[in-house]
Amino acid sequence: MTDEKLCPDCGRPGGFAQGECATYASCVAATRVECDTLTITRLRAENARLSEEVARLKAERQWIPVGERMPPTGLNVLVPGGLAFFDGIDWRTMTGDASGRRIQWEVTHWMPQPKDPL
Predict the structure, then answer these.
(1) Average pLDDT of the chain?
(2) Which distant-in-sequence residues (6+ apart) come within 8 Å of 38 by Cβ?
(3) Cβ(23)–Cβ(14) under 8 Å?
């Protein structure tokens, strides 16, 4: 059995430090390329996942023109100026009773309420 040093990158005999292993530079370069390729692949996958999440969140939090679509009747939604619901005829704000108070301004846009944090 020999006490020959092995390159930590490739496992070939030659040494541990630059200059001691004849293949050190190529071993380091190959290791970096492999690592960089794996890193790039992982980062691309993460970027694609995050891009999909951003698109989903943007769509969820987009103001919807009332001329394009109305919310389901009775569902509380955000409108410019606060929280309201559409009763099928008028926009109403929440009050102590289920009928609500009619909004006195023109509602042009609405968006779903964000989910509760808990």
Answers:
(1) 78
(2) none
(3) yes
**Confidence band (pLDDT; 50, 70, 90) for 25?**
low
Distance CA 83, CA 91 (A): 10
Q: Return the ∠ at Cα 56 (arms to 53 and 57), rounded to 5°.
A: 85
CA separation (Å) from 93 to 24, 30, 76, 109? 73, 66, 9, 15
Q: What's the distance, CA 91 to chain centroid? A: 33
Question: If you count them, how many residues does the chain have?
Answer: 118
Residue whose tokens read 């891009």: 51
Give 10's pLDDT tier (boundaries 50, 70, 90): low
Answer for the pair 114, 77: CB distance below 8 angstroms, yes or no.
no
d(CA 32, CA 72): 56
